[in-house]
């Protein structure tokens, strides 16, 4: 903004901001549903109140011109949102001066420069101009001494590899965009090894007296703080602004009424304003002013991030904060269209495994590593040790046990491993722990290359079902050990779901009539006979799969009966008739979830996650543990250089993440541990253009 007018910034200056100015950023991205537009206004720390007001006004006008489709953001220097930072891949540079502060933007001789930049951040980099003095330095960050024709990168002794490489990327970007590629870069990684460069630094900064300051830890909101979401209804009454708290987490979508405006406060870390379709134009205009007023009333720092959102054009970040977010007429996955209210059952899409390698995004979408044609080995945890299971009984899992399933498949000629840890609902704590410890030992035998998947009983992932070829049976209790003392129940009832051998499983349910459901096939096994009960809503494919399972759960004669034509003995075995679920299954369509990538850090004793928006393979740093959340599962990617503490804490971090998630997530979500260089297709498919040879 120059003299209250919007002036376009030349493209090569994108990412450089004057501290005395305000800027407006318009970002458009193609999506499967058209395009997503974000509008940001950025406030420099020395900009005037008038400019800040003008910037907010222009954003409102642009929003109107774009028919209310953009998500709007207020960004304050040094406290930018993760979305904003994702636009400037090589980092953001803050320059002193600006129009308002009386300094003109000096751009005369581009080599006539002398400045010191303090570079911070590992995932999102920003560089601030600081005083040319040794007092500006500390041991934990990267500093760039920019002398026009020479750029010297000084790395603090306690910098991480990622910080150094991000610093270098920034130095290169200054050289290429501001100096037309004509400048030299020197790096000081250890002062003793770079006497010539140190001499130049001393010439500019003088001799250094005394010790360098210690590293300054980044002040960041931890996950517990972010999980504290509160929803407020905001309205005017007799010229006064009324803010009324209506709900805390977990929030549900029906709380948002189209006639009103709401403020959602995410633990003071970020403030969202949601504007209903039918709210008045005055209300819509006042969104930013109200949010700023709310921040002041709450005593939050003035740098708090604000996002203004329109009804029907919500951002992924916002939808994330609700327990379930559904959209009208959403196409899901592979071309299934759901319309609310008319849904019977999920149509199982026939799945062609040959496409997996050609289209890794399909592997991710279908959550399949391969076509399930590999080798299986199964062990049971017995007396805290691994006991091989008889291959004749592969696929039968008992709720009183824990199992390890090692799946081996070939990819480009060499073996890859997936190690499933199946935890029975009634297994002892010792067994669950022993299962995890034995998994580590088994992984070592696979050369530490296995992908480890934690499976909670009843939450088996798609690929797990597929490898047992339609013969997966889950018994509620008991054990498959030879010497078990408990006699088998005289009557057992199993619910069978699935249409082919890739997606079928039978689960034991209480043997009562109320367990039945018209949409499915049930097997009732008694000491005389095994009934196949076919609900009105089941398909021929489902009946065929149930016959396969029936032979596993019972050696008796099989009788097929249709719902409504049951013999008296059937109800007797179930302890009498009772009402059961018979309406068509309503398929909740959950918004097509956008995967999110986070860097996890637990070193400070607080659990902190930094989101990487618009992520790519480059963002997986060798010395990190990263978390990829695809809603149906949580992947933990472990870099080769990550420290032992973070590696050991990884699974605990993932559980903590699910626990503190504002949307009140299912704690049984599968957690998948993936090691750098051994990524399976259902992980790499979430990344655009994955390069398997990068490492």
Automatic annotation (TrEMBL):
Q: Which domain of life is it from?
A: Eukaryota
Output one GO BP term: barbed-end actin filament capping
List the Pfam families: Gelsolin
> Molecular function terms in GO for this entry?
actin filament binding; phosphatidylinositol-4,5-bisphosphate binding
Keywords from the UniProt entry: Actin capping, Actin-binding, Calcium, Cytoplasm, Cytoskeleton, Repeat
Q: GO cellular component terms?
A: actin cytoskeleton; cytoplasm
Note the InterPro entries from the entry: ADF-H/Gelsolin-like_dom_sf, Gelsolin-like_dom, Gelsolin-like_dom_sf, Villin/Gelsolin
User: Which CDD domains does this chain map to?
Assistant: gelsolin_S1_like (cd11290), gelsolin_S2_like (cd11289), gelsolin_S3_like (cd11292), gelsolin_S4_like (cd11293), gelsolin_S5_like (cd11288), gelsolin_S6_like (cd11291)
**UniProt keyword annotation of Calcium present:** yes
Q: What is this protein called?
A: Villin-1
């Amino acid at each position: 903004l120059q003299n209250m007018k919007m002036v376009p910034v030349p493209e090569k200056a994108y990412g450089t901001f004057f501290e005395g100015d305000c800027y407006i950023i318009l970002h458009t991205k193609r999506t499967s549903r058209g395009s997503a537009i974000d509008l940001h206004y950025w406030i420099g720390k020395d900009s005037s109140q008038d400019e800040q007001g003008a910037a907010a006004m222009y954003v409102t006008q642009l929003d109107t011109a774009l028919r209310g489709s953009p998500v709007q953001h207020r960004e304050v220097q040094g406290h930018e949102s993760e979305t904003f930072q994702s636009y400037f891949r090589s980092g953001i540079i803050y320059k002193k001066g600006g129009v308002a502060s009386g300094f003109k933007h000096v751009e005369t001789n581009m080599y006539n420069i002398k400045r010191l930049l303090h570079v911070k951040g590992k995932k999102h980099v920003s560089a601030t101009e600081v005083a040319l003095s040794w007092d500006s330095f500390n041991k934990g960050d990267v500093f760039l001494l920019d002398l026009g024709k020479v750029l010297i990168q000084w790395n603090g002794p306690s910098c991480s590899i990622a910080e150094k490489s991000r610093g270098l990327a920034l130095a290169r970007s200054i050289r290429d965009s501001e100096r037309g590629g004509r400048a030299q870069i020197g790096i000081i990684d250890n002062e003793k090894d770079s006497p010539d460069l140190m001499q130049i630094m001393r010439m500019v900064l003088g001799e250094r007296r005394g010790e360098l300051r210690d590293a300054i830890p980044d002040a960041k909101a931890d996950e517990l703080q972010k999980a504290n979401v509160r929803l407020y209804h905001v309205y005017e009454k007799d010229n006064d602004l009324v803010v009324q708290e209506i709900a805390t987490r977990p929030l549900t979508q029906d709380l948002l009424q189209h006639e009103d405006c709401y403020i959602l406060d995410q633990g003071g870390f970020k403030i969202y304003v949601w504007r209903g379709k039918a709210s008045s134009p005055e209300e819509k205009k006042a969104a930013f002013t109200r949010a700023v007023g709310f921040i002041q009333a709450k005593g939050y720092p003035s740098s708090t991030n604000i996002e203004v959102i329109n009804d029907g054009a919500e951002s992924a970040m916002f939808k994330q904060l609700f327990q379930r977010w559904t959209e009208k007429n959403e196409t899901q996955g592979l071309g299934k269209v759901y319309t609310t209210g008319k849904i019977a059952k999920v149509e199982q899409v026939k799945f062609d495994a040959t496409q997996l390698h050609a289209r890794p995004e399909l592997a991710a979408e279908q959550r399949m590593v391969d076509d399930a044609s590999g080798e299986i080995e199964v062990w049971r945890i017995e007396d805290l040790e691994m006991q091989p299971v008889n291959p004749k009984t592969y696929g039968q899992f008992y709720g009183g046990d824990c199992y390890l399933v090692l799946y081996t498949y070939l990819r480009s000629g060499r073996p890859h491993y997936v190690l499933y840890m199946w935890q029975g609902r009634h297994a002892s704590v010792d067994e669950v722990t022993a299962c995890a410890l034995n998994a580590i030992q088994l992984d070592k035998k696979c050369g530490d290359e296995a992908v480890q998947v934690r499976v909670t009983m009843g939450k088996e992932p798609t690929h797990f079902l597929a490898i047992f070829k339609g013969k997966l049976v889950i018994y509620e209790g008991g054990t498959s050990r030879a010497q078990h003392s408990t006699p088998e129940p005289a009557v057992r009832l199993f619910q069978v779901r699935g249409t082919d051998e890739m997606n079928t499983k039978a689960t034991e349910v209480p043997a009562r009539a109320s367990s039945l459901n018209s949409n499915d096939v049930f097997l009732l096994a008694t000491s005389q006979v095994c009934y196949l009960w076919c609900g009105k809503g089941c398909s021929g494919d489902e009946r065929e799969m149930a016959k396969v399972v029936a032979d596993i759960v019972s050696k008796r004669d099989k009788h097929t009966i249709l719902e409504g034509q049951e013999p008296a003995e059937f109800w007797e075995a179930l302890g009498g008739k009772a009402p059961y679920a018979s309406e068509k299954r309503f398929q909740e369509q959950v918004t097509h979830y956008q995967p999110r990538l986070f860097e996890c850090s637990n070193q400070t004793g607080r659990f902190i996650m930094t989101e990487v928006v618009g992520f790519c393979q480059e963002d997986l740093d060798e010395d990190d543990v990263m978390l990829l959340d695809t809603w149906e599962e949580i992947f933990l990617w472990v870099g080769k250089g990550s420290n032992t503490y973070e590696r050991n804490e990884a699974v605990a971090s993932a559980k903590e993440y699910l626990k503190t998630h504002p949307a009140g997530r299912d704690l049984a979500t599968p957690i998948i541990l993936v090691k750098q260089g051994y990524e399976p297709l259902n992980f790499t498919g979430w990344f655009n253009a994955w390069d398997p040879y990068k490492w």
